[in-house]
Amino acid sequence: MRFLQETDYAMQIKQEIIRLLTAPTDWYISAKLVRSEQTAIAQIRNHIGKRYDCDIIFMGIAPDETVDTRDQWIVTITIDIALYHLYSQTGMKDIPEHRSQRYQDALEWLRDVGNGTLTADLPLLVDENGDVFSEFIINSRQPQNWKW
């Protein structure tokens, strides 16, 4: 089950262009597109995976579900990153300026969220005890008894 659906691309790119980048027929199952999506998801996981539960974030839509519960911003930036990687296979001079800018914007947002300077409305990572992950560790040293 893939995270991105065929209909998700309609908002970002025209069908004719994506067919030129992937394959004239059955573009959605093209190996180039699948690899670009996997690369984009891995890139997002690497940036926000230590704070947010990426297994929940990247669950696809089950065939029997009627409601799309995916975070639409994550869908959008996943498409932006995947399309950038798809264009980069054709040559760096062929990447449209708006595609490059959207890719840079997505990376900047991911860096900020990953560093904790921005918060996202995404499921937080929890440990085996059910506690929310925190980078802060509070501990103390044992008291020293210097009475001799």
Detailed description of the structure:
There is one protein chain. The chain is an all-alpha fold. It is 44% helix and 0% strand. It is built from 5 helices and no strands. Helix 4 crosses helix 5. The protein is elongated, with a radius of gyration of 20 Å. The protein starts with 14 loop residues before the first helix and ends in a 33-residue tail after the last helix. The mean pLDDT is 86.
Main sheet summary: none
Rg, nearest Å: 20 Å
- What is the molecular shape? elongated
Summarize model confidence as the mean pLDDT.
86
Q: What are the low-pLDDT stretches, counting only 5+ consecutive residues below 50?
A: none
Sketch the topology as an H/E string, one letter per element.
HHHHH
Give a count of the beta strands, DSSP E runs of length 2 or more: 0
Q: How is the secondary structure organized here?
A:
Blueprint: H1 15-21, H2 31-48, H3 54-57, H4 72-88, H5 97-115
